[in-house]
Amino acid sequence: MLKCTKKVAMAIACHPDDIEFMMAGTLIRLRDAGYEVHYMNIANGSLGTNSMSYEEIVCMRREEAMNAAKIMGAVYHESICDDLEVLYTPQLLAKVVEVFRQVEPSILLTHGPYDYMEDHINAGRLAVSAAFCRGMTNFKCDRSIPATLQDVAVYHSQPHSLTDSLRRVVKPDFFVDITSTMEEKKAMLSCHKSQKEWLDKSQGNDAYIDELIYRGKHYGKMSGKYEYADGWIRHSYLGFGPEDFDPLAELQAD
């Protein structure tokens, strides 16, 4: 593989608001370090309501995600399927590969294989496989987009529940200081009004923001040195680039 000369980072998550909770702090830090940042939710949030029609909620959650990406200055990419239809299929994989080759990121942030729900796990699998297939010229896509050969470092976020599906605590490999990003993260999450209002009714006012703050403090405390942090686990380098290609380690050192 060839080391990429472009500084491009991409977050590929499952549902609208997953990036805000799990990845946005680190993505903001990367943006501030000079990276072009990209934002993609694989699912469209179609099941995130008990009161709106399919058309209403999909339209609303798309607008919410676009507004959040705009706050960050990220390039927004369209969702490609409904909630609970995030399955590891050749059809969905081909769509993600097309986007990945167009963006040509050297950093991929996505869900881990230990997440608490199948949609998240499958979104992470699709993202990782798309990165792996980036240079395979015979991989079939609907559109003819050239294969790419850049090195990619893949990092897995911490699950929403802080545990895996069997209630076991997931411990990060390392932490990124996101203290300086918290106000921007809160502003991004506040864009997702459909989800915030539902949680406010069921769990109390500002429950959504409170959870965001709790996550940041939880991993900050776990780090032993940051007030707020994102926790990350690095994927194997095999098939993605050299073992020493670890750009988030450079971000930690800043």
Describe this structure in words.
The structure is a single chain. The chain has 254 residues and is α/β, with parallel strands linked by helices. It has a single domain, classed as 3-Layer(aba) Sandwich (Rossmann fold). It has nine helices and seven strands, in the order βααβαβαβαββαααβα. It has helices at 18-22, 24-32, 54-72, 90-103, 118-132, 182-190, 193-203, 207-223, 247-253, and strands at 8-13, 36-41, 75-77, 107-110, 153-156, 174-177, 229-234. It has a seven-stranded mixed sheet, sandwiched between helices. Strand 2 (36-41), helix 3 and strand 3 form a beta-alpha-beta unit. The longest helix has 19 residues, at 54-72. It starts with 7 loop residues before the first strand and ends with a helix.
| Strand percentage | 5-15%
* SSE run: EHHEHEHEHEEHHHEH
Mean pLDDT: 93
Number of strands: 7
Q: How many strands, what sense, and barrel or not for the largest sheet?
A: 7 strands, mixed
The CATH homologous superfamily corresponds to: LmbE-like
Question: Which structural category do the helix and sheet elements fall into?
Answer: alpha/beta
Give the overall form. Answer: globular
CATH class: Alpha Beta
The share of residues in helices is 40-55%
CATH topology: Rossmann fold
Radius of gyration: 17 Å
CATH architecture: 3-Layer(aba) Sandwich
Strand order across the biggest sheet?
3-2-1-4-5-7-6
